[in-house]
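Field log, afternoon session.

UNIT: design team B
ACTIVITY: writing a sequence onto a fixed backbone
BACKBONE:
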């Protein structure tokens, strides 16, 4: 019997609340560490260049390991893989709080990243199993909202805990919430069947993971060391070699880790490109906005934070509504509107000057948050509409991996454009970045025409 058959309407939403605990702790694990970083630097007497590994190693491993855990979920069941990952996350969080040295803290953060890499593909696959297609967009909307809450709540919690209880308390809290999640999932989520019928393509998985890891790492190192450094150029060679090896292996493996025909599925390829474009713009703006508000307009960091806050808040509030809209109208309309609104918000940003009034800044960022909120949950739901169930886990893993890779790419490219200016307060460089945002969002809006509309969703619903 399938999970959906076992779950009543009210039970489905209880299962959703349960599995989203993992999404919350995963997001908190990233957003809380940023605020605690200065205290960690003081405790271990390390420089900022070393301390950033506390954040970088976590993001790197979460991103590149998601396809592997998605594939293992396809083979052995998503609940089993998810509980294993969360158990590792809880254990490594406790160990991080007790880390005797900085190197051990980085190691435990790496384990946290490995554990959290199971979260996104498992959560999205369980949602697909539990919810019928006519409710899936709404469920994905709540998933997007929880992510937004985690990003917004993390810095606040971390600041309070670090000030009054010390930086280890952020890991204690995260580990405790994770343990609650493990228990609730064990009790409330019905088991899904073990489906392993073939061997695991280790070479394909290893080469793809190596290529993704080197790419993400090199994007961060190139910005620091210079793109012409021998070290960075050597890493590009390793990336190219790993990618070529992966493609050659996958054309010969039976069965392959990633069936390359997946990318001939136009709706899936479009959904992956749209989420990549969204995170490219979002991460780029997370870099630009504080710099513009503080260096061009002269606001303090606290004032800048308050002005930026409506972006994340609007996206979080809109996500469930966008999901409900997707259930009735399909992903195409919502994503077309969403990325179109992002592009229009970018047009508004090009009118920003040093004298732009705060209310104009807020209106632009509310529009940007509206566009982001209209896109994230519908495009995630689209993947579950268009990919066969037996390949859903690895498809979701790749989909989410591209979110993080493109986000890193956005931060890097937006930063390079700023660095090319004679001054970090140069309006011309900021406006060039805003034009780039408009172009990327516009292309993503056009790609949304390939996503399922209401008729396609009703057809899929009838076939389930």
């Amino acid at each position: 019997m399938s999970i959906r058959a076992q779950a009543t309407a009210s039970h489905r939403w209880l299962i959703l609340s349960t599995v989203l605990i993992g999404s919350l702790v995963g997001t908190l694990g990233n957003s809380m560490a940023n605020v605690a970083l200065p205290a960690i630097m003081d405790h271990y007497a390390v420089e900022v260049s070393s301390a950033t590994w506390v954040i970088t190693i976590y993001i790197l491993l979460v991103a590149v390991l998601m396809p592997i855990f998605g594939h293992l979920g396809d083979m052995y069941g998503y609940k089993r893989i998810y509980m294993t990952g969360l158990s590792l996350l809880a254990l490594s969080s406790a160990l991080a709080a007790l880390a005797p040295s900085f190197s051990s803290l980085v190691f435990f953060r790496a384990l946290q990243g490995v554990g959290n890499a199971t979260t996104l593909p498992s959560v999205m696959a369980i949602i697909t199993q539990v919810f019928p297609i006519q409710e899936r967009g709404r469920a994905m909307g709540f998933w997007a909202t929880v992510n937004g809450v985690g990003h917004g709540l993390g810095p606040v919690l971390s600041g309070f805990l670090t000030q009054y209880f010390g930086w280890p308390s952020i890991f204690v809290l995260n580990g405790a919430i994770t343990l609650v999640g493990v228990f609730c999932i064990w009790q409330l989520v019905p088991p899904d069947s073990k489906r392993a019928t073939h061997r695991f393509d280790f070479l394909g998985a290893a080469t793809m993971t190596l290529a993704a890891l080197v790419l993400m790492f090199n994007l961060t190192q190139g910005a620091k060391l210079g793109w012409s450094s021998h070290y960075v150029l050597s890493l590009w060679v390793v990336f190219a070699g790993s990618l070529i090896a992966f493609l050659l292996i996958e054309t010969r493996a039976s069965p392959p880790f990633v069936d390359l025909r997946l990318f001939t599925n136009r709706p899936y390829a479009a959904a992956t490109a749209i989420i990549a474009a969204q995170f490219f713009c979002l991460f780029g703006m997370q870099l630009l906005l504080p710099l513009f508000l503080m260096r061009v307009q002269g606001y303090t960091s606290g004032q800048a934070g308050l002005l930026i806050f409506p972006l994340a808040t609007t996206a979080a509030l809109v996500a469930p509504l966008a999901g409900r809209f997707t259930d009735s109208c399909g992903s195409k309309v919502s994503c077309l509107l969403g990325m179109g609104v992002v592009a229009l918000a970018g047009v508004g940003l090009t009118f920003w000057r040093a004298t732009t009034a705060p209310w104009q800044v807020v209106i632009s960022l509310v529009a940007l948050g509206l566009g982001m909120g209209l896109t994230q949950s519908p495009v995630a739901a689209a993947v579950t509409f268009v990919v066969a169930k037996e390949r859903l886990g690895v498809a979701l893993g790749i989909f989410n991996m591209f979110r993080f890779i493109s986000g890193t790419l956005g931060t890097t490219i937006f930063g390079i454009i700023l660095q090319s200016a004679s001054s970090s307060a140069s309006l011309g460089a900021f406006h060039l970045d805003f034009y780039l945002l408009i172009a990327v969002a516009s292309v993503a809006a056009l790609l949304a025409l390939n996503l399922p509309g209401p008729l396609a969703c009703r057809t899929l619903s009838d076939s389930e």
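LOG NOTE: Residues 301-349 form the longest helix (49 residues).
NEXT ACTIVITY: expression trials, pending approval
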